[in-house]
Design goal:
Layout: H1 8-24, E1 30-31, H2 44-53, E2 60-62, H3 68-77, E3 82-83, E4 91-94, E5 119-123, E6 126-127, E7 135-139, E8 147-149, E9 151-152, H4 158-166, E10 174-178, E11 182-186, E12 191-195
Parallel strand pairs: 2-3, 2-4, 4-5, 5-10
Antiparallel strand pairs: 1-11, 6-9, 7-8, 7-12, 10-11
Helix pairs in contact: 1-2
């Protein structure tokens, strides 16, 4: 069985603070501290976020491409119940975004309890790709003027889906884009405009 965090309490607290900061500062790329060595096929950043956010009270939708070793690792370290229905998940782990369910398939919360919406962890091919490639301009709470972001490996219509998600605010899902040791947050309040801007 692969280990989790070296120091579970301290490492989880550091990781959790980084995830909170990523949501508070949409599109900013942050480095995740103290990432674990999860099973093959589960990126370190995704593994770290799961160790922080998944527990016995957090139904998890796990990408069907995840192997049995990953399922055993989650049962051992997190004890989270798994569901095959995205609408019942509080947390979604997407390992192949190009084949993921639509954002609208996950719970957006409800009017009385918008905080009961799902949070999605997306393992992406890259954050802040080659200069000059198409990206998005983010606006909204936590962004002073505009925040550029490029994410590789998303479904072709992801940003169209995102506009529909953001239009439901205060309902809607929140998303973390995760690489090996980096994260960018996309809260439901963020407005995204596709643009061929050059990002630095």
């Amino acid at each position: 069985m692969r280990s989790g965090f070296h120091d579970p309490s301290l490492d989880a607290a550091r990781c959790f603070r980084t995830l909170l900061e990523a949501l508070a500062r949409p599109g900013r790329i942050l480095v995740l501290p103290d990432t674990p060595e999860p099973p093959d096929g589960l990126p370190r950043g995704v593994g770290a976020a799961l160790l922080c956010l998944a527990d016995q009270d957090t139904p998890l939708w796990l990408d069907p491409h995840a192997g049995e070793e990953t399922r055993q690792w989650l049962r051992f370290h997190c004890g989270c119940p798994l569901t095959e229905d995205p609408a019942r998940a509080a947390l979604g782990c997407v390992l192949r975004p190009s084949a993921m369910p639509r954002l609208a398939a996950f719970s957006p919360g409800d009017v009385e309890y918008p905080d009961r919406s799902a949070t999605l962890l997306l393992a992406v091919e890259g954050l802040d790709g080659d200069a000059g490639s198409p990206g998005v301009a983010l606006r909204g709470p936590g962004v002073e003027t505009v925040q550029p972001l490029r994410v590789s490996g998303l479904p072709g219509d992801f940003w169209t889906q995102w506009r529909a998600n953001a239009a439901r605010f205060p309902l809607g899902v929140d998303v973390f884009f995760l690489g090996a040791d980096r994260v960018a947050g996309l809260p439901r309040s963020a407005q995204a405009e596709v643009t061929p801007c050059t990002l630095r």
